[in-house]
Amino acid sequence: MFVSAKGMYYTTDEGQEVLDGVSGMWCVNAGHGREPITEAIRAQAGQMDYATAFQMGHPLAFELATRLTTLLPGDLDHVFFANSGSEAVDTALKIALAYHRARGEGTRTRFIGRERGYHGVGFGGTAVGGIVNNRKQFGNMLGGVDHLPHTHNLEKNAFSRGQPTWGAELADDLEKLVALHDASTIAAVIVEPMAGSTGVLSPTGWLSRPAARDLHPARYPADFR
Q: What pTM value is reported for the model?
């Protein structure tokens, strides 16, 4: 039973310090009880604690979104804030479906996740996730979901200096799934670049394979993004 926290440590109700080795659940990476963060929260709560996002907003939300877009790669220039990772994933899945329907491609309804991937505890995130114990109690959940194989391979990943050099060939499994279902049915592919909930699983280079589109456009159809 934790009663307080400071820096990297929790304090139990018996006064024992416990190292927070996972930063809460990867959400307090700057540490607990950081004064600048505490002061910012206190000041904002005193000015305005909340305004619904339905036709309303606050300038700081737009300022933060603008700053984030300068850090994002490519043409990612929009930010949608959510309350949790589970909500963010389910919202992302809905945005993908709505986006394709708005473009007149309402046949794009299939999602592809990855084995051992974790995408939250909502029905959508659990469906595209690949953790068996998180899925087996809840039936079919979201339909039209397929999964890529995970990247955990002790024989090939062991003793790697940095990211393992093998694994780019795993991208071929994505091509096989696209061919199986047809690209016109795929709404989105969702993966964790660095999986954490089932052990730290590195991407092993396969996420960089789509960069080969420029060299091999025939292998990567323009209608699949």
A: 0.83
pLDDT in tens, 70-90: 999 888 899 999 999 999 999
Rounded distance between C-alpha atoms, residue 17 and residue 129, angstroms = 34
3-state per-residue secondary structure call for 178-189: HHHHCHHHEEEE
Q: Kindly state the tokens that stand for 153.
A: 């391979």
Contact in structure between 193 and 206 (CB atoms under 8 Å): no
Tell me how far apart the alpha carbons of residues 214 and 134 are, in angstroms, rounded to a whole number: 38
* Domain limits, the chain: 84-225
Residues 6+ apart with CB under 8 A from 71: none
Q: 89, 119 in Cβ contact below 8 A?
A: yes
Under CATH, which number does the domain 84-225 receive? 3.40.640.10
Give the Cα separation of 219 and 80 in Å (integer). Answer: 32
pLDDT band at 220 (very low <50, low <70, confident <90, very high): very low
Considering only CA atoms, give the Rg of the chain: 21
Average pLDDT over residues 160-183: 87
Q: Which of 131, 127, 134, 116 is nearest to 201 (CA)?
A: 116
What pLDDT sits at residue 210?
A: 55
Q: Looking at the chain, list the stretches that DSSP marks H as alpha helix, in order from N- to C-terminal side.
A: 23-26, 35-47, 59-69, 85-102, 123-128, 132-135, 154-157, 171-181
Q: Tell me how crowded residue 59 is: count the other CB atoms within 10 A of its CB.
A: 7
Three-class SS of residue 101?
helix
